[in-house]
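Q: A reviewer asked whether we had any structural model of the full assembly, not just the individual parts. We don't, so I'm hoping you can provide one. Inputs are below.
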Amino acid sequence: MDKEPDTRNREVEELSERCRLLSAYIREKADQLLVMMGSKPLDASGLDDRALVALDPIGTIAESFAQVIAHIHDVNAKLRSEIAERRRTEEALREKEGRFRTLAEFATDWVFWRGPDGTLIYVAPACEAITGYLPGEFYANPGLAESIIHSEDRSRWNVHRHIADGEGIPGALEFRIITKGGETRWISHVCRPVYGEDGAFLGVRGSNSNVTERKRAMNALQESEGRVRDFLDNAIDLVQSVSPDGSLLYVNRAWREALGYGDDDIARLTIFDIVAPERRDHCRALFRRVLAGEDVGRVETRFVARDGRIITVEGNFNCRFEEGRPTAARSIFRDVTEKKRMEEEIQKASTLESIGILAGGIAHDFNNILTAILGNISLARLELSHGIASARLEEAEKASVRARSLTQQLLTFSKGGAPIRNPASAEELIRETAGFSLRGSNVRCDFDIPADLWSVIVDEGQVSQVIGNIIINADQAMPSGGIVEVRAENAAVGAGEEPPLRAGDYVRISIRDHGVGIPRENLARIFNPFFTTREKGTGLGLTTAYSIIKRHEGTIRVESEVGAGTTISIYLPASRKEPLKKYGGEGPLLPGRGRILVMDDEEVLRDVALDILDAMGYKGTAVKDGAEALAEYRAAMEAGRPFDVVIMDLTVPGGMGGREAVGKLLEIDPAAKVVVSSGYSNDPVMSDYRRYGFRGVIAKPYRIRDLGEVLGAVVPG
Amino acid sequence: MGEQPCVNSVTLDLRGQICPATLLKSLKQLNEMRGDLGSGASRLTILTDHRDATVTVPEAAGNMGYAVSVRKEDRHYVITVEAARR
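A: Here is a predicted structure for the entire assembly that you could use as a starting point for your response.
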């Protein structure tokens, strides 16, 4: 059985329809794909199905798509790894940047980078701590950094910047800035040009650090050093620092001034050159010990000044060590030249004082002996008023007087007492003393003394010392002989005319020689004790003269010219009254009447005194101390035969002396006339006898004449 | 495009083909030569006289990761496809 043709037709039609559908679908999709790929579609091409299938558009395109997707995957993978790589690079970069940032941000220095065009590329945050301004302010205003530079330092900055901008490398620069808060700070700045890898100039990189503290410390140090130097320089003592080889590392101003060395000398000389030759070995030995670290205690040595003067110094000597090696020996010395001289003089003085005391003691005893001699001679002369023996006795008396004057000098020297001043003939004094002083010399004396020369109120013994010393000096100034001119004149001095003299009458005595003269630098020192230019001189002559004249309320002056001569002038207080004549024989004896009580502990003196009194017509009684004198006086008073005058020795060893007795005597009899006698012309009682109650004074040893005068003055009638 | 002496050169002459067939046949060839072409061992030269093909083929081949160049000859075009330079 066949299928019905309709059914077959229907089946064929169905199949064909399906075919057409499928084919159309395939073509449609193929075209879709082709168009998507940018190609023309197939439909216009008239390709039959078989050819279409053979062409395999969908399969081909699908496979191509697979490749495309594979390619995209490839590309993606590459991109992804590229991205990852880039990320890693960025990471590394960020980390590096982070490191540099840390370095830069935490720098304590104010670091900056200025581009070639002057703009600010970078500034470290440290700028805030140093300047007070934030980085942002610097970025905003590139001129800010320069504007805060101190006006005084601006020009130096400009020079510096000019070099830097020209790709030069300027040196470091220090300048001040004013911070935002108004504070002044010191900045230490360095900068240099920077270049890229390709050598391009990228600008200037600079670094500023705050050195205010350091600057202050340096200034303080310099100031401190300056103060130390100033302190050392102003010290009175000599400060020196010597290197181990002896050269002078440092000397202060006092050192230079004391020794007179200049900078050249100090650079050239060693300490051994400065030390006096005789001390050099000692100095070397000392130096070695000091450098070895030994403590040598106080040191005394002598330095030679530039002009050859020797000065004595005393001080210490110590050594500075660095790492066990000596680097400098330091010393502080005091100039003790004067001190040493003073010590020597004090030594001399104390020696002299001892001698003086000795001499004084001898002189005192000698004086008493002289009194006896002089007294007896005077008495003997009374017996023999003419003839050879009389002449010899006169000579003996003169010699004794001279001896007395010598003892007076010794006593004055040993005790230096107040003068007992009486009117005396200046002419006699001058002539006598000059004659005596120039005895045996080849120097002659020329006198210019007016007849109307006033008398001088002086202690003859002391003033004759003065004149004698001056004339002896004049004599020695002219070793080959010459003339000493001695001139005397009256001088009435008004107030203030001749200081320090008070207004009054004076006699001026000038003694002039034509000898070697006194150099100017010595003129001020001739009155100093122990100053002498003579080898055997004591240096005391003019000193004593000065003090004697001073005590007489006179004055002494010196004028001198080296090679021409010296003139010494003395002013002595004068009186227009007639002086008491000294010589001319004994003259008419002053007769006396009356009872005289003599008190002296020396028997010889008592005997002489009694003899003299007897010769003069007085009735004398002698006792040996104040107690006896009082008893005797009282007894005589009660017996109705009182004494007229009492002569008492000032001091009685081991008993009551006149000083004590007079008071008691005056108690018994307020009208008692008491005369004090003493070998010490320098006891204050002697010069101010009235105050103690005495009516008169007589210096031992005395001649008849002396006693006669005093008694004549004290005893009435 | 440098000459590589050891490269295997394959030529596909598609002159006289209809336009879509040019593309499809080119693609098919590319698919077949995938390995060698990609490694650079081979090179494909396509001859066509369709102007459109000089656009569609290079575009497709480019998307597939190849390097393409086009040259005009007298009466036809020459499209050269090879591995892309890394």
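A: Points you may want to mention in the reply: Chain B has one domain: 8-83. Residues 8-83 of chain B form a domain with the Translation Initiation Factor IF3 fold (CATH 3.30.110.40).
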